[in-house]
Amino acid sequence: MGKGDILDIPAEAVNSVNTQSTLKLFIVFYSMYGHVEKLAKRMKKGAEGVQGVEAVLFRVPETLPADVLELMKVPPKDPEIPEIVVAELATADGFLFGFPTSTGTQGGGQETTAWTAITQLAHHGMLFVPIGCTFGAGMFNMDSIRGGSPYGAGVYAGDGTREPSETELALAEHQGKYMAGVVKRLLSQA
């Protein structure tokens, strides 16, 4: 094809290394009721806590028709967060993705979501960077119900009325900072 891949991104854009002093970390997410968006905003805060990193929030385009969203009582999207455009992906130094899961299982589908995403990342030569147990004691706090695992930040939304807890938000912030540090270290070796 003469291009980077089927997304029609020029190969030179895909293979280039950022020589700017500021690294760009894109946080790309989908959030129907705002739970994943709240995690994404805290990831941004964590990532920007790393010197020389700019984190940018993007949402993926909505696929459901407006009448369905209205019936589901989906709140309006934050107009300050733009939709991602495929061509913009090549300008990022790293990504954090926010995938909603809704399976009604104990793990909430987090593991399956991560495993499924990894295959897609591999096809594009990307690395999956889990946080492991780097969150420390907060990872093991069982005083209350919380989302998140060594795969990354998460939130139990229940019927949608439960908001992310401070522990869940702090884990998201930690993940943003952790990922920004990994991207910075990898690119400093390039």
From TrEMBL:
One of the record's GO cellular component terms: membrane
Entry-linked PROSITE patterns: FLAVODOXIN_LIKE
GO MF terms held by the record: FMN binding; NAD(P)H dehydrogenase (quinone) activity
Coiled coil regions, renumbered to chain: none
Highest taxon above the source species: Eukaryota
Domain Flavodoxin-like: 25-190
PANTHER family named in the record: FLAVODOXIN-RELATED PROTEIN WRBA-RELATED, NAD(P)H DEHYDROGENASE (QUINONE) FQR1-LIKE 2-RELATED
Family indicated by similarity: Belongs to the WrbA family.
Protein name in the entry: Flavodoxin-like domain-containing protein
Lineage: Eukaryota, Viridiplantae, Streptophyta, Embryophyta, Tracheophyta
